[in-house]
């Protein structure tokens, strides 16, 4: 009886050791890192052909911080700062302003890659306090080359031209790569 219990305990410990080796990863060192630039052109009734985002809800009278505003987007993503460069992905999703006391938005978007370098998607979902110089947002999963990935996207507003155009620098660090 004691011999059988010892065998079960040993088997259990071996299974735990095998599982710990297969799912462990180093949170301090990303398995993939790259920098991307997202380009946004806001729709304003005279740029239908070029617009990549549109406000679909903009309630009035809810404070000074655009609380309740809801924007959808399908933005080109490039490897450099040039809007005219060939896109390597599209950022498709939405944002909404979710705070009445200061400017803060919540982001949900998927980067859809279809290039020679990468195929697949990954999803970014998190709060984005846009007044901060840099913001860390969660990468919560993906498909294709980014299957089940996890990581951090550090956003920095790289260029703002009034209310019509902005460029967002995205420093991507993936910590789970399969």
TrEMBL record:
Subcellular location: Secreted, Extracellular space, Apoplast
A Gene Ontology BP annotation from the UniProt entry: phenylpropanoid biosynthetic process
Superkingdom field: Eukaryota
Signal peptide: 1-24
One cellular component (GO) term of this entry: apoplast
Keywords recorded for this protein, A-Z: Apoplast, Secreted, Signal
Binding partners and assembly: Homodimer.
Function: Dirigent proteins impart stereoselectivity on the phenoxy radical-coupling reaction, yielding optically active lignans from two molecules of coniferyl alcohol in the biosynthesis of lignans, flavonolignans, and alkaloids and thus plays a central role in plant secondary metabolism.
Family statement: Belongs to the plant dirigent protein family.
Name this polypeptide is given: Dirigent protein
Organism name: Brassica oleracea var. oleracea
